[in-house]
Specification:
6 helices, about 35% helix, about 170 residues, NADH Oxidase, 4-stranded antiparallel sheet
Length: about 170
Amino acid sequence: MNTVLYEALRARRVTRNMTPEPVDSSHLDLVVQAARYAPNAGNRRLQTIVPVADQRMLQLLRQVSPGMVARPMAAVVICIDTARAVDFGFDPHAPGLFIDVGTAAATMLLAAQAVGLASCPVTSFSRAAVARLLALGPGQDPRLIICLGHAAADQPPAMDASHQPAHA
């Protein structure tokens, strides 16, 4: 058993309170690069990963993202490239495209944990506003934002054992 991986899985938490300490650009790069190791249907990579480190842009993203409770020092936006999906013959709403967003997110969340960053996935945001703010091209559909930063000392309590999945 790979205990290092298991420990990263066990230790990773959704962090809603982050400090104003900056995110090292090399750590943000590692998190973004981790997406390429995520399982992906047909290895087609129909997701676009957009890193955001500009503080003004992060403030604007927060204004159009009611689910962004954390005040991240960086973020990663995962988009579905619907134009490429159609070129490959997929329905742009095919479930596999959304599953691939999830596998990319899970892999990047673990990478963030591995480099010592706190993280929080966000799905409650205006997709049209995020696309406009980031000047995304036609067919780029933002679906998930991963907030990144350093965990503040004050956090909501961790989930207790009574709410964890049962062992098989």
